[in-house]
Amino acid sequence: MAKIVGGICTSHIPAIGNAIANDLFEDPYWKPFFDGYPPVRAWLDKVKPDVAIVVYNDHGLNFFLDKMPTFAIGAAKEYKNDDEGWGIPTIDPFKGDPELSWHLINSLHDEEFDLCSCQEMLVDHGFTVPMSLLWPERGEDQIKTVPFCVNTVQHPVASPRRCLAIGEALGRAIESYPEDCKVVILGTGGLSHQLDGERAGFINKEFDLECMEKIVSDPYHYQNMSIHELVKLAGAQGSEFILWLIMRAAMGKTPQVIHQNYHIPISNTGAGLLCLDTVS
What we know:
The chain is α/β, with parallel strands linked by helices. It has one domain (3-277): Protocatechuate 4,5-dioxygenase, Chain B (3-Layer(aba) Sandwich).
């Protein structure tokens, strides 16, 4: 049977992709951010997951304001990268796992979640930046991936309660998959940031640090929060925190914190990192 070995929360800021491409790992601005990742990569080398389910939000590459599904899951053999306007170099495609994807789609459908199933899917920085941070070198034996795309752009946006519920269902779906494989779940995006409007540049460090504590010990602390309340506390784009909630709810019981890092500002964003082990 499939097993969830852990979860990782990480920011997916597009500027990170350019910093990676330009080898800015020792740059004073970037070093405190990049220094957070070697312990997580060491943990990945130890547990050796077979599949990464990447919970992220599309930024206009696959879906735009005229057609915006609440939840979409990729079911392709591979996922090609494309730049949606940030100037990030295109990287090699990511290997898919169609069998697991269809199992997840069917299982979530049976639990009455309406999904957009995508047999072709491009992936943008929301997906590629976390993958590049965690698996900087990908060979022929690269980890398989399942993109799990969640709308955080066009309102109405799924509530924290709804995201916790689909996360729980995702965990059940993974654990009912009959093949032997180890799964790691990535909750991407955030933390607090607002890129436009009167509050452009808004960061709420106090709320970010609370999120990093509660996501481990009590993710259901946020189940009665509305999206509007979340935006007020975390900024318009800070609603991406719901992607972390999906990841955490899929994991179930309280995990062990392997590593954490928080650094501001990175491109006007509170950049958070958590590595969580399921502690079997």
